[in-house]
Amino acid sequence: MSGYLGVVLLDQVSKRYGRGQWVLRDLTLEVSGLTVLTGANGTGKSTLLKIAAGVLKPTSGRVKRPASVGYVPERFPSDVKMSASSYLAHLGRIRRTAAGDVLERLGFVGSLTAPMSELSKGNAQKVALAQAFLATDLLVLDEPWTGLDPAAAAELVSMLEGRTALVSDHEGHLASATRVDLAGGHVTIELSRVVGLEALEALEGVRSVLSRGSSARVVVAPDRSDQVLAEALRLGCSVRSVR
Fold this sequence. Notes:
Blueprint: E1 8-16, E2 22-31, E3 34-38, H1 45-53, E4 60-64, E5 69-72, H2 84-95, H3 102-106, H4 121-132, E6 138-142, H5 150-160, E7 165-168, E8 178-181, E9 187-193, H6 197-201, E10 206-212, E11 215-220, H7 225-235, E12 238-242
């Protein structure tokens, strides 16, 4: 994992369940800061987040992630019998780190000694976030604002500033974060000679650019692929394939 501290890389990742339809196909994404996944229901956001967190294995492709990853699923288990304090202490021992002030900052008002199954949805979500923030390298959060009151929602935005995180956010809490849209598929342009990489990254419709020495893979929205390809050729790049 050397060189990937605080970064997750999904390289040509595809996923389907059994013999069903492909949920993800040849997706390449590199996350090194605060990144938001967008797209309609059914575009594979939750599946991608599970793969990024290491909860789910891809059908094909490779994933590199740092050692310490905190994950909050779309639906946190509602039948946990442990108390919030015991749960966080247990996970803290596993991660070899002490629980911070996340619950206090989010305004947790329930009983820390009652079974988590008895907590309100909002308080259970705050505990879920507290266990995720025990991680030191990467956060993977699936709709983390679910059930939070406005004050807690605003505080979570503040807590994510400066963190490396991959987040689904259909309500638009993180307007300034890097956005990756999973809707509508994508086109992958393989370049064997790269010129003007920064100019390509800035083009409308470019979702990700993965550079490897003198080559690069550019993932583009389908409706902008012709323009990006034309610009790559104008810059002097050598195009190996488009698919």
